[in-house]
Task: structure prediction
Amino acid sequence: MRLRFFGSTGVAVPVVGQGTWRISTRSGRSAVAALGRGLDRGMTHIDTAEMYDDAEVVIAEAIGARRDEVFLVSKVLPDHASTAGVVGACEHSLSRLKTDRLDCYLLHWRGRHPLEDTIAGFERLVQDGKIVSWGVSNFDVRDLDEALAIAGPGRIACNQVLYHLEERSIEHGVIPWCEANAVAVVAYTPFGPDRFPAPSSPGGRALAKVATRIGATPRQVALAFLTRESSMFAIPKSASSVHTAENAGAGDIVLSDDDAQRIDAAFPVGARRSSLAML
Result:
């Protein structure tokens, strides 16, 4: 599994991690087993959020005594993002995760609370040792500019955003901004929202051609393409050990320029959006 520094944190993190949206205790033992399989395969970046039902409880069970192996991330809801609310929400997440700290804590998206208050809460948590770093999610360039002006350089660890082969608009502005400011970009829903390219589609055929040539699967090729830049990470979700192992295999793939160009042509970036795409 390839590692790279997570923004300005100086921490080496696997390029492919594990998302937990829609994972809950109702998933049974399979979700716990899938997360454990991911850890065994080097997918030590685990992402969750307070709004993900009881995913934090599942993660706590999956991690167990392996906490020090994990780069653990959770997110605070916008309605809880006042200074005091951030602290309280984090403490609740820590309790559910059965840990004393988060490696990174994110604002899930912008809401009614001023960013100054949210960032003040984050910085208080850093001072108290309850989080190591903090970042944002679903932030466009204007939002990032505002956060940078408040926090100063080197404080925003990452921006977690929607990014998949059929939604590449962050390449226009968000990715260049993050690269220029040493902010990691974490792709959520990297296979698309329940619509990975069909094998019979032009894009599906392009993925299959590359996959056959390098001895990989189309989904592994997609993840390798999405994490090709030095600022990029991806957090695909899987409640299956088989699919988790497949995702992990993408972390060792480096596409040739020709293969990357073939996929780029099959899934064009498209026009710049007036607002950031998000789920």
Q: What stands out?
A: Residues 83-97 form the longest helix (15 residues).
